Amino acid sequence: LTVADIAAIALQFEGAWLRLEDRSLDWLLALGERLTDDQVQEFLASLWEQQEEFEKKYLKRSDREYRRDSYDNLLDSAQDYLGTLPEKQRELLRESSRQLLRSDQAWLQERAEWLTQLAVLLERKPGWQQRLRAAVVARRNELSPEYVRIYNHNMDVIFDAISKLLNSRSEQQDRFLREKLTELRTDFET
Predict the structure, then answer these.
(1) pLDDT digits (tens, 9 = 90+) for 54-112
(2) Are the beta carbons of 58 and 70 closer than 8 angstroms?
(3) C-alpha–C-alpha distance, residues 86 and 97, integer Å
(4) Comparing C-alpha atoms, which of 100, 125, 103, 113 is closest to residue 32?
(5) Buried b vs exposed e over 6-45: b needs ≥16 C-beta within 10 Å?
(6) Do residues 99 and 157 touch, judged by C-beta distance below 8 A?
(7) Distance CA 116, CA 40 (A)
């Protein structure tokens, strides 16, 4: 598998996610019409509380801690699909984690801006559903250049790591991967 192959698969997953998000939005808007003002405020307060928890958890990390967490996340994800990794594959993931750019601050800033906008939209003034739907679409297309730069760089690094990892898998890892993919297919079909 090439990096381009991995990127193409990721693009298909992203398209599926966006379709799911669009369909889920219909249900969420219908739910939003039935909520009381107190329930909406409680929902927003919960999102802001989560934002504060994310900021405390992620922004206080040193670069070294960020790299360690990135490596741990890459390793956990790889082992979910390939089983145990030998040292050579682990080193590949360590190297990839060193190439990642910190995304936590840019992501949290984007998220905070979205929560501020969402609070205004959820005042539920006439036409709020269409404005919220338009805001969701606009959010996808209006991310800050810095956030997009970091995201694209990190995706390139991760796609490269996935390509190298999959191309270096053993027969045992291949069987593990195929079993995992079969389970996922069954879950999706169910």
Answers:
(1) 999 999 999 999 999 999 999 999 999 999 999 999 999 999 999 999 999 999 999 99
(2) no
(3) 17
(4) 125
(5) bbeeeeeeeeeeeeeeeeebeeeeeebeeeeeeeeeeeee
(6) yes
(7) 14
